Amino acid sequence: MRTKRDFPPKDFAIRIKQFSLLAKKHEKYESFTRLWLYPEGNTSPPENGKDHISLYLAIQDTDSLPKTWEVNVDFKLFVFNQIENKYLAVQDAKRFHEMKTVWGFDQFLPIRTFNDAFNGYLVDDTCVFGAEVLVIKPSGILESIHTVNEPSNGVLTWKIPYFPKLVSTILESEEFTSENKRWRIRLHPNGYGPGKGNSLSVYLQLIEAEKLGPTEKVWANFELRVLNIDKDRHVRDTFSHWYTFKEFHAFGQHMLMPLEDLREPFKGFVVNDTLTVEAELLFVTGAKVVS
């Protein structure tokens, strides 16, 4: 990536006077700051610096590093445009290691462009190159994410007998285990929240979600259904929710269906005083910071 900017490189720069003489005498110049310059291009195979200035960054003091060392670096190499008073920067990011201690650009700038004083890079046979180096240090944080489509044992069918006679404010199904998590259906037969007194409220609960760690969460895409004797008339709705230790651990619909539809026997939802509710996990994603 090539950009221009007003301010100089923060790490180091080299000013070269009588550049043409340096180019005649030195195929390669290695600065004290480990900037490698090929004034007439690096043409040693497999490099491809013909007709270009070649410029590289070399890592220093590798003898003190462990045998299997590696350093990830985001770096910019610069040349100063003395007419525009700006720095042309060429940027890359590379992994330095014991088998590759030098990275840079075979074709940093065409020699013809560089040598033409009207372009501003070589003026009075003087030029300036430079570099900025940012070492990328891994944070040590790894987040593991695992998504399952149609998880095994992901459907619970719950038959609720004596439904018309229930006076409970809340019912809970038996548990079912899917993707190493325990789930159940929570149901308010007379409604909850905005559904109180007028709707059936149904939710899917992640049991013991409060025991999830602060860097752990579970996402579920699921369907809640109230079954009808006529399969084409099932009431269903689909939901998605991230379960964490902080939030209420049941999620669903306050107003899944009107209570008046349940109270009419000919509607086909309550059969022999039994209501059947289902929950089906469609996708489950687990996310956790493991290190």
UniProtKB/TrEMBL annotation:
SMART domains: MATH. Residues 9-133, 153-281 form the MATH domain. CDD domains: MATH. InterPro entries: MATH/TRAF_dom (IPR002083), TRAF-like (IPR008974). PANTHER family: TRAF-LIKE FAMILY PROTEIN (PTHR46162). This is MATH domain-containing protein. It comes from Erythroxylum novogranatense.
